[in-house]
Amino acid sequence: GNPADPDIIPLSPTAIGTGVAGIIKRTLKLPITIFQPLVSGKNGKITEIPMDQRGP
């Protein structure tokens, strides 16, 4: 629509809650490889794995 006169559609709290729940669900189902590049080193500190040593 026109940016000067936008169409506003009110959403029910149920619709908003369902959307937020979906975002959380998809976030928790992300592949673990996103978190794999960081590992805990021998000294307990988190270190980054060099690109050439990372898995697929």
Task: Describe this protein's structure.
With 56 residues, the protein is α+β, with helices and mostly antiparallel strands. The chain has one domain (13-53). It contains one helix and two strands, in the order αββ. Strands 1-2 form a two-stranded antiparallel ribbon. 0% of the residues are buried. The mean pLDDT is 76.
List segments where confidence is low: pLDDT < 50 over at least 5 consecutive residues. none
Give the SSE order as H and E letters.
HEE
Counting structural domains, the number is: 1
With strands numbered from the N-terminus, the spatial order across the biggest sheet is 1-2
Secondary structure tally: strands: 2
Supply the number of helical segments.
Answer: 1
Strand content: 5-15%
SSE diagram, text form:
Blueprint: H1 13-28, E1 38-40, E2 46-48
Concise account of the structure shown:
With 56 residues, this protein is an alpha+beta fold. Helix content is 29%, strand content 11%. It has one domain (13-53).
List keywords for this structure.
elongated; 2 strands; 11% strand; 1 helix; 56 residues
